[in-house]
Amino acid sequence: MVTKGFKALLAEANVEIESIGAHEALALHGDPEVVFIDVREGSERRKGAIPDSVSAPRGFLEFIADPEGPSHQPEFASGKRLVLVCASGGRSALAGVTLRGMGIDNTVNLAGGMAAWQQVGGPVETD
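^ that's the sequence the OP posted. Answer follows.
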């Protein structure tokens, strides 16, 4: 039996993790001290992704974030500000909690995710 559902988990994550709006995220895009981390699945990214974002599907996040992990991406250990992105902001908030638990505190969640990004005219590339 589920004792804490996804709504409660998301509510807790949204309290714990800093969120930024799409306009603020757009202003950060291209900043050399900022990396956009896309936690969506590959099939979602192929439909459109933020240019120069790093793919780190949430199901593999720990293996990608950990320098000792088999799929490590160096951006996670760069010390740069990490802007976490998903479709609507839920998975990326949960990913932020995971990363914080791993000791990676330089993360923010893009509130509203790719939907919000596209609403403000953020650039999108497709495969």
